[in-house]
Fold these 2 entries.
Entry 1:
Amino acid sequence: MYLTIGVLFLLQFISGAAAAPNDLVHLLKRASQSSYAPSVVACPASVPTVSSANALSPNETAWLASRRPKSISALRDFLSRANLSGFDTNAYLDNHLSNPSNLPNLGIAFSGGGWRALTNGAGALAAFDIRTSNSTAKGHLGGLLQSATYVAGLSGGSWLLASNYYNGFQPIESYLTGKNGLGSLWQFDTTILTGPRGLIHVASYFDDLTSSVGAKESAGFDITLTDYWGRALSYQLFDSSDGRPDFHFSSLAQSLPITSGDAPLPLIVIDQRAPGELLIPVNTTNFEVSPWEFGSYDASTNGYVPLEYVGSDFNGGSAKTCVKGFDNLGFVVGTSSSLFNQFYLNLNDTDINKTLKSLLNDVLAGVGAGNEDISDWPNPFYGYGNGTAQNSAFKNLTLVDGGEDLQNIPFHPLLRASRDVDVIFAVDSSADTSNWPNGTAMVATYQRFASGLRQGASGFPSIPDQNTFINLGLNSRPSFFGCDAGNNTAGTPLVVYMPMSPISYFANISTFDLSIPDSQRNSIIANGYGSATRANGTLDPEWPACAGCAVLSRSFNRTGTTVPKICEGCFSRYCWNGTIDSRTPKPYLPSLVAKTSGGSRGLECSGGLVVMLASIVSAFTLI
Ligand SMILES: *[C@@H]1O[C@H](CO)[C@@H](O)[C@H](O)[C@H]1NC(C)=O
Ligand SMILES: *[C@@H]1O[C@H](CO)[C@@H](O)[C@H](O)[C@H]1NC(C)=O
Ligand SMILES: *[C@@H]1O[C@H](CO)[C@@H](O)[C@H](O)[C@H]1NC(C)=O
Ligand SMILES: *[C@@H]1O[C@H](CO)[C@@H](O)[C@H](O)[C@H]1NC(C)=O
Ligand SMILES: *[C@@H]1O[C@H](CO)[C@@H](O)[C@H](O)[C@H]1NC(C)=O
Ligand SMILES: *[C@@H]1O[C@H](CO)[C@@H](O)[C@H](O)[C@H]1NC(C)=O
Ligand SMILES: *[C@@H]1O[C@H](CO)[C@@H](O)[C@H](O)[C@H]1NC(C)=O
Ligand SMILES: *[C@@H]1O[C@H](CO)[C@@H](O)[C@H](O)[C@H]1NC(C)=O
Ligand SMILES: *[C@@H]1O[C@H](CO)[C@@H](O)[C@H](O)[C@H]1NC(C)=O
Ligand SMILES: *[C@@H]1O[C@H](CO)[C@@H](O)[C@H](O)[C@H]1NC(C)=O
Ligand SMILES: *[C@@H]1O[C@H](CO)[C@@H](O)[C@H](O)[C@H]1NC(C)=O
Ligand SMILES: *[C@@H]1O[C@H](CO)[C@@H](O)[C@H](O)[C@H]1NC(C)=O
């Protein structure tokens, strides 16, 4: 108490003016913004080191021991509801419980695509969540989320995960009804340009942004536009009053749904764009962030460091000076979505606070044009590894949006061989053709694998070209890839591709729509639920059983089990069978399956700004 008053006096002294009483809150907030700055700390007794990518972090291994029994138990319930008629899933699980590595291991991936990806992903997440009302009814998929070991997100998909884990992994419904204190979040009708609704001082929002980023710079760290971007996002995703400058991604490791093993492990994907590189090559390094670690199994890096100490000065594989607090939650997801730095750069003066804009221009002058999308991280892999590890040479890492290499679905961490994932539900909200996905993200990851052997990776199934996706309808309903284990290298997961498609709403809004009214937010979420469930099973009453078959497929292979008849039917309907049809398709203009409220049919044009941004960004291709 006294300390707080002392701080306030000090602040008033510094600011050189006696603050009016209602400015005290403001001043206190500003003081808290300084907690955004990372700080030098005494290194712990066991100095943070780089560990090899060959083995999982001991923290993750320990966590798996608490998570796996819970996920298997949830899977048992999911499979009995899925009703694989003619096949006793309970007996199957019982027979193989003694060797848990024979049982299915699930991952779920949420693609990028801005607020569209956040909301469509939220619809799929709600469909998979057993706690969503009616999600255990016939034709629904509730319980798949609870059966998963891992969930991965990038860019807009990373916002969904970070927001949800920060808020204790609550059901998506809570965000819409505003229950449990979530009422002030997910207000996407206000934009990051004006800050959250109900601010006492509008100016204080801009003050917050600049004072937090300024504190980091004063502490001696390089700042980029991504710092401002991450701070702004945090008001929408985490806490509308101060954006939680003091909350770190590594803090999630201590949060309940992780410590109890009740939720899957969240993993975020970030790309590297090496200094001086303008086009991202197909083999660019993909980094992952877990609550415990930051790193990559790609040959350029081949190492992981404790996330809590990621801002430290590492050399030759160990920390020389220790720093904590670099991994601010908003900064991590801001880095994963750094393409959105374009927002700031292209806004005209009436759209953005002039003071802020001139600060941003100063930052930009420091990094040079062409680097506006980067996020600057100290490189913990400096001096680590041998000649094959290119990242050993750089003092800092220039990181960018996880979708900039076109791999807009965050497969990378789920393909880490040591994670043994055998089925991935891939929710794709990419804007490829009229803002609907056309398989481009799948093709990009396939090409990455086709470009050469990848150490540390499991494998990725064969994927046809985008024209085939459209011509065979693979992008307008769920489809399975890599069904035949025998046609793939051992360890390759089966991929259940779940494209965003029009069920009840034209959810194909632009990636750069700055604001989404609540009604539209809800409609996209409901459409995402419908895409994932095939309109609650109305398009295929056996869809939940088919999802169950996909989950069990690799396990059947490992246990030498004959594929049940119902699964044979599912596989013939949902598995891509190798057919190619590369003829140029007609324009993709799908119609609604279940007619409710309208929306836009083709490319949404919400004003010149969006069109301008979209054309600038198309140079980077879409995320
Ligand atoms: C990770 O595990 C080590 C012991 O193996 C422990 O000291 C450390 O606190 C754990 N880290 C976190 C973030 O839980
Ligand atoms: C759940 O299903 C019941 C019965 O079909 C229906 O009345 C109710 O509106 C549904 N709830 C939601 C949230 O859709
Ligand atoms: C713009 O932001 C600055 C802080 O960066 C703040 O002091 C100023 O009041 C803001 N102006 C408006 C019009 O909001
Ligand atoms: C990508 O491949 C090229 C050509 O083989 C190689 O020179 C480059 O070092 C690779 N980059 C990374 C990050 O592995
Ligand atoms: C600036 O933005 C405003 C409001 O968004 C718009 O009306 C105006 O036309 C824009 N001006 C320019 C030069 O783009
Ligand atoms: C260099 O590192 C790579 C991967 O980190 C490893 O596979 C290789 O054996 C190492 N080579 C030498 C000569 O140590
Ligand atoms: C990277 O590090 C160098 C020196 O360590 C620094 O001058 C530079 O500003 C940093 N950032 C970028 C984007 O290169
Ligand atoms: C698929 O999407 C990409 C953009 O991601 C686009 O360049 C390509 O033209 C699209 N192809 C078709 C057939 O729609
Ligand atoms: C199981 O998968 C392996 C490859 O991982 C393959 O060689 C084998 O034929 C498959 N067995 C069955 C029964 O499908
Ligand atoms: C699916 O079920 C949910 C929850 O019961 C309901 O709200 C939604 O309208 C249904 N969607 C479709 C497309 O039938
Ligand atoms: C493979 O799929 C194509 C189109 O999806 C279908 O026309 C063809 O009959 C299938 N072939 C077999 C052998 O099932
Ligand atoms: C089977 O593997 C071959 C060779 O990699 C590939 O061309 C083919 O498309 C694969 N078939 C399926 C159905 O994935």
Entry 2:
Amino acid sequence: MVSLGLLTGSSPKSPVTAVFALSTALLSLGIFLHIYFLHLWQGPEYTSYEMAQRHNTQHTKPMTWNSTIQVIPQIQLEEFTKRPPIPRQGPEIRQVVFAKVHKAASSTLQNIFLRFALDRNLSVLLPKQLTSIREESKEILPQKVVPHPEGKMFYDILCNHVLYDEQEISKYFKDTAVRIAIVREPLKQSLSALKYFFSSWDKFQALHKGFNKHKKDPIHGFLNNPQDFYVREAGPSHSYINNRMSVDLGFELTDFEKSKRNETKVKTFLHRLEAQFDAVLVADYFDQSLILMRRILRWPMKAILYLKVNVGTLKKLSSVWHKQPNLNSQTLNNFRKWDAIDFQLYHHFLDIFLKRINKELLFNEELNAFRSIQMDVKYFCMYNAKAKTLDVPKGQWTDAFTLSRTDCKLMTMSEPNFVEMVRQTQTKRYEEFKRNL
Ligand SMILES: *[C@@H]1O[C@H](CO)[C@@H](O)[C@H](O)[C@H]1NC(C)=O
Ligand SMILES: *[C@@H]1O[C@H](CO)[C@@H](O)[C@H](O)[C@H]1NC(C)=O
């Protein structure tokens, strides 16, 4: 190869060859980098961070958080009482509060929780209508939720959207219910939210307003001018692109723009979450998250199987939305300032998560066993229509279990349909309960 000749030092015969060789080398480098970044950007959901972890190179630098807000040492933070550790031995845990965060693989997790609940006749706290309990404010109104099927005070499972507030949650769930949250790399999460809500439910036409201003390259327009896609008067709870993960997890909404830059406030928020949740999972490490969750909840392997749901297909979106963002440091820093709470949230809990799974014994063995079963499940559910059931034999990491076509159907059911189905089941149970009073 010409470029190889240049690299190994053999002298080119003429200046023309030299120029040709140089340009070929640059071209291949260009193609390589292009493919590399494409992969980094678009590649399978969870690889870019794994790559970032493995190669601590310049390419991955922009992905790590170097705080634009200086950490002031010795700020006095409020103390929060941590939840007691959960013993690993015992029956499966059936009371779980899952803080669903927008566009963070949480519909897939919701599907897992709904299947778990349905299988065991558990009571899920559900909105009377649609799929969100509350998205704009923290209060959970009793008249807006489906009554407990046995008329009790405390439910078993939460897996629909709320703005997380421990005081509100404690009205519906026992303190012993395990609290789980999830976060995702903020740039991916924001772009996913931007595209998803642009094509589905654009409140106040905020995203269209920004789109119209940055028609040629809305992605870049957004990263450089997120405020153009935002209605400031409406506030962060009416938007999905202003630190939405932190909003979902209960960050104080008043004086939001000012609070973003208030180190004490953000750090206090993170410490509060650390104390409130038994685990904060990471969507970028989805399978690892499921294994950690299963260990904490002492769940059988069957309970955490999944087929992805609610992944934006972007079919309706025009090609400008498919542009690769130019991740230069100015664009990134600009967006990090806008999304400051979410970036700190993410890196804080990513760090805790990675340390935590590193301490787990035989974690990768279990992960591999899970992934192997997952492949059989995918094949059975999606490509092997003839077989009636899939029998998974007992192994080191699993009891024997059988998967039916119904299981497949539930695993691929859309969020609105599944929520509606569970709602109807619970409403029936509630009516029966009233009749027997
Ligand atoms: C759930 O409830 C149904 C109907 O009441 C009942 O037939 C079934 O056995 C229950 N399942 C479990 C696991 O309790
Ligand atoms: C930052 O937040 C803390 C805690 O809420 C507050 O006491 C402080 O006055 C805030 N600082 C600024 C500069 O607003």
